[in-house]
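Re: weekly structure request thread

Next one in the queue (283 aa):
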Amino acid sequence: MRLVVQGRAISIAHLSHIHGLVGGHTQFVQIAEYAYYLPIQSTSKPMEVSNVQKFCAEQKIDNALVPDTQRLSHFGLCVMDMDSTLINIECIDEIADMMGIKPQISEITEAAMRGELDFAASLKKRVALLKGLEEDALQHVIDERLQLNPGAQAWIAACKANNIKTMVVSGGFTFFAHHVKTLLGLDYAVSNTLEITDGKLTGHILGDIVDANRKAQELVHLRDALGLKQSQTIAIGDGANDLKMLAVAGVGIAYHAKPVVQAQAMYALNFNGLDGVANLLTV
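Done, posted below.
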């Protein structure tokens, strides 16, 4: 196995301390500007690993114990959430801001992401509040507020270099998902469609809602269509709506995620950009 540590805060002093915690017989290998790995025995004591995790959390350094079998060349599909994962915003909250009701919408969004509300019901409730908004407001969100999260382009470039197919599957909206798909050159996009009549939002969603079950189903369906095994798939997300998708993937990664997601994901990135995913799976 390899112990991967990464973060802009990392220093030689940090590496020396971590090396001492695990009693390593080899040295750290640098894999990126702020990322290193240390080959270790899979028989490392749980206390040693726990001490490393505690130290890294205190120092704002991401860490993960990764099996050597998990390398980029092994994978064939990566499925990702969009809002607050690939991009820096929750699109529905920013749409709501155009109507002056962002606080009300954001409160519901946060509760849903924490897993405290049923996602489909909460989404219908939020979208209903957007009734009457001009369609042009959606483009304003893209032009004025939507940005890719740090490392997104580097991560997708790593996927392309390793022939990994990419899909964004979002509980958000097609208008934004298609934009992100084009911006990053993703292979597939699945999301919800807002009903628009006479240039205005009706407050309804067309078709079935992309909820937690649908996200997992989309991953499995595409995996099977590509002839891949579960172990060849990666999923990345940040909210409770992503948990089932992360669970059916070979590798589930929590990206700057809610506590409930971090607790259940295989790996978590809290201090790095999405390029940190490539560092986890690169040797």
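Residues 1-68 form a domain with the Alpha-Beta Plaits fold (CATH 3.30.70.260). The mean pLDDT is 94.
Next request, please.
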